[in-house]
Amino acid sequence: MADEKMRILNMLSEGKISPEEAEKLLNAIDDQAIPAGTGSSFLDSMDNKNLYVQVEPKDGKSSERVSVKVPFALLKAGLNIAGLIPKDAQDKINTSMTDKGINFNLDDISPDNIKEIMTALEEFTVDIDTDDSSIQVYCK
Fold first, then answer.
1. Between vectors from CA 128 to CA 123 and to CA 132, what angle results, nearest 5°?
2. Across-strand partners of 127?
3. 44, 73, 94, 119: which has the fewest C-beta neighbours closer than 10 Å?
């Protein structure tokens, strides 16, 4: 862990990354270093939950079934990784999302709001019922 921090500081001193990028990288390392049960108990409890996507055919119209299970721990890791994206790349992603009409900003993803995102996902459900299939997206 100390080696990773030293590499980040060296990249900063060499001008390879900005102070903001260094801060994000250091915060991401610190977030990964929090032992289970020490101030991160909420997020640790979320690791036992999953996001499910299920598609069930109706009335024998198809034999294709879809069942996807995504652990919250993977989603949480993905949110932490977003902080490692260089600032110039984040700006391009944010601009592209805005151009497509999607109000999304990578700068808004931080360790401080991961709990809020995970709570919202926990309450997230989608039910779609068509003539051919039933689709569910939910967390538990």
1. 150
2. 136
3. 119
Please write the tens of the pLDDT for every residue from 49-71: 888 999 998 876 667 889 999 88
DSSP 106: G
Q: For 60-129, give the DSSP string.
A: TS----EEEEEEHHHHHHHHHHHTTS-HHHHHHHHHHHHHTT----GGG--TTTHHHHHHHHHT-EEEEE
pLDDT digits (tens, 9 = 90+) for 77-126: 777 777 777 888 888 988 988 898 888 787 777 666 777 777 787 788 89
Spatial separation of the C-alpha atoms in residues 105 and 111, rounded to whole Å: 15
